[in-house]
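re: ur msg from earlier - yeah i can do the 2-acetamido-2-deoxy-beta-D-glucopyranose complex, just paste it... oh wait u already did. ok heres what im feeding in:
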Amino acid sequence: MGISKSDPIIIVGGGAFGLSTAFHLTRSGFTNISVYEKDDQIPPRYSAANDLNKIVRAEYEDPFYTGLTIKAISEWKTPLFAPHFHQTGFLHCASGDAPQKALDTLSRFRASAESNTQTKPHVIPLNDSNDVRQACWQLDGPLTGWKGYLNRFDGYAHSGNALAAVYRATQAAGVRFYLGQHGAVDEVVYVSTIHGRKSSGIRTKDGKFHPSSLVIVAAGGAVGRLVPELGKKVVAKSWSVAHVHLTDEETSALRGIPVTYARDLGFFFEPDPKTNLLKICPMGGGFINTDSKTGVSHAPDTLEESAFVPEHDEKQMRKLLAHTLPALANRPLVKTSLCWFADTDDSDFIIDYVPGTSDSVLVLSGDSGHGFKMFPIFGSWVLDVLETSQQRNVQWRWKQSDPNESKGNWGGDVSWRLGESKELSEIKPKILSKL
Ligand SMILES: Cc1cc2nc3c(=O)[nH]c(=O)nc-3n(C[C@H](O)[C@H](O)[C@H](O)COP(=O)(O)OP(=O)(O)OC[C@H]3O[C@@H](n4cnc5c(N)ncnc54)[C@H](O)[C@@H]3O)c2cc1C
Ligand SMILES: *[C@@H]1O[C@H](CO)[C@@H](O)[C@H](O)[C@H]1NC(C)=O
Ligand SMILES: *[C@@H]1O[C@H](CO)[C@@H](O)[C@H](O)[C@H]1NC(C)=O
Ligand SMILES: *[C@@H]1O[C@H](CO)[C@@H](O)[C@H](O)[C@H]1NC(C)=O
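and the outut:
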């Protein structure tokens, strides 16, 4: 088959995967690319990457991803991306209360960091809380039972600003952006051919049809609405995010601290110098939003439905602060939200054609909450699929939905997750449930 460089291509979603794809396609000579994004701004408020920061760590339990992240980190150091990458290190620990599962996961991550020849020289073992304090003097809490390692190869990226930079660069390179009411996509449109169905383009919510040779769907946690064929293979899931607002002095004192992560409590980043916000994520099993009719979890349609964090998570974030930066433990938590992503049962991405569409619809999904670090290189994998007409990595192939599966696999078996997923309806504050 093959698509030619002048064929019209539509990308649905101006988040991390969509923008990276627009960037790589443009760079390799594709000339007719349009991005459709339902928010009226980039970074879009619905994007999981609309955020101050995301961890960029090289070590994975699976060496396949470690290799890819090392490549991504070298791209993070190139001029377009470098202003948004901060190699502060990754202080990766478990507290004294951590369950065995968390300790086992930590050991595997540590073994990965210590065995890779590129990351190994940057790894410092932290055998007790004194070692942790040595590695980062600003952590003046009790750090009860903390141990793990510090990897100075790692750091974080300012994801919102990185999206904005690639938005500007691709726009300057000729990519057309349709935002807000002109960019909200209602459906992928199909026509019948002798080989089965084939997409002819998309229809936006304003009723307009837009033709294209290829539709690339990069809709994050909302993918199931546009590609229902995924069924329960992709689960829209969310984690809590909250911030503490610091003074200029406090921000300054915490400058350069590593990403601080206790597997059983969650993590935080150095405060953002522009906003003085210190971002915290408690992690855990996450929250899903299952449609009772189909059994499929979808990201909620409005931002308001996700503008809170559940009480249990708030307690855990305060506990993390009490262990590390106790002066902040009782501050108000601001800009709280649930951040939605597309989860798979094995944490593998999906970068493949929707079967039976004559290679006219390509889905980028299954980010599984760890995709942003790949932002500088993600689109090159899409290019590879276009050039070879197939997904060569078995791990990233289409996942066939099983109609007999009674409910989605919530990824509780994934080694790096702790805890069970809960339904959004169970945790919603009363005032929101009335909306
Ligand atoms: C709390 C949290 C913490 C995370 N931490 C990390 C981390 O530390 N490190 C890391 O590497 N990754 C992390 N991630 C994951 C990372 O954010 C995602 O992997 C990444 O954003 C996925 O990109 P995406 O393009 O698939 O989805 P998104 O970035 O969410 O973008 C999807 C876009 O599609 C748009 N869209 C949806 N439906 C439509 C439609 N019908 N029409 C038009 N537009 C539409 C949305 O508005 C959105 O802008 C985290 C995620 C969460 C939730
Ligand atoms: C891009 O594709 C659209 C849809 O086919 C077409 O109308 C438009 O003229 C094309 N633009 C360029 C620059 O080729
Ligand atoms: C931690 O223990 C290891 C042996 O397990 C040792 O090599 C290392 O020096 C110790 N680290 C510190 C900081 O004391
Ligand atoms: C679903 O269940 C039916 C009846 O038990 C069975 O015949 C069919 O093969 C199953 N399908 C799959 C995909 O497992």
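cool cool. The longest strand covers residues 235-245. ping me if u need the other ligands too
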